[in-house]
TrEMBL record:
<feature type="region of interest" description="Disordered">
    <location>
        <begin position="99"/>
        <end position="132"/>
    </location>
</feature>
<protein>
    <recommendedName>
        <fullName>Histidine kinase/HSP90-like ATPase domain-containing protein</fullName>
    </recommendedName>
</protein>
<feature type="compositionally biased region" description="Gly residues">
    <location>
        <begin position="106"/>
        <end position="118"/>
    </location>
</feature>
<dbReference type="GO" id="GO:0004674">
    <property type="term" value="F:protein serine/threonine kinase activity"/>
</dbReference>
<keyword id="KW-0723">Serine/threonine-protein kinase</keyword>
<keyword id="KW-0808">Transferase</keyword>
<keyword id="KW-0418">Kinase</keyword>
<feature type="region of interest" description="Disordered">
    <location>
        <begin position="1"/>
        <end position="24"/>
    </location>
</feature>
<dbReference type="Pfam" id="PF13581">
    <property type="entry name" value="HATPase_c_2"/>
</dbReference>
<dbReference type="InterPro" id="IPR050267">
    <property type="entry name" value="Anti-sigma-factor_SerPK"/>
</dbReference>
<feature type="domain" description="Histidine kinase/HSP90-like ATPase">
    <location>
        <begin position="41"/>
        <end position="151"/>
    </location>
</feature>
<dbReference type="InterPro" id="IPR003594">
    <property type="entry name" value="HATPase_dom"/>
</dbReference>
<dbReference type="InterPro" id="IPR036890">
    <property type="entry name" value="HATPase_C_sf"/>
</dbReference>
Amino acid sequence: MTPHSPLVPGLRPVPPARPRRGERGRWTTTAVDGRSELSPRRAREYVRRVCGRWRVPAAQAENAVLIVSELVTNAVVHGVGDRVTVVVTLTGRDRLTVSVTDRGPEAGGEAGEDGSGGTPPPPPDEPCPAAEGGRGLWLVSVLATEVGCEPVTGVGRGTGTRIWARIDPPEAACGA
């Protein structure tokens, strides 16, 4: 994976949340509480149900569930809003994309006490074995085929961040 982005070094801009006009696909969205430690579990359950309904292969679905859990956890811990939006998109036969949007620090500096400023750090090349945290974005980058993020406006009363991940079926990701 070789991601790119002007917002966060190493990440790509976000693809469309919904299938493009003329492109076959499905999408669904939900919102979870941006302040509740139960939100990652609720997001996992939602993505698992959606993937089951859409008959997404089990390994691909479980990667999506884990990725959404990590991204929602980050939004709850680091965001400043009371709502986190999760979008699941399936285009073509097997292109699964998940995105998580939160109201959080604006791009361009350290986060202030009022929630202004700051950008998410790029995922580390490899987590420190002794560290208690810092593995979430690294894990997302390992499980996803592509990862990206972008700032968004109109989220609550300010700006936020949308992070997305495309998860290919294991056989496609391995080049089989």
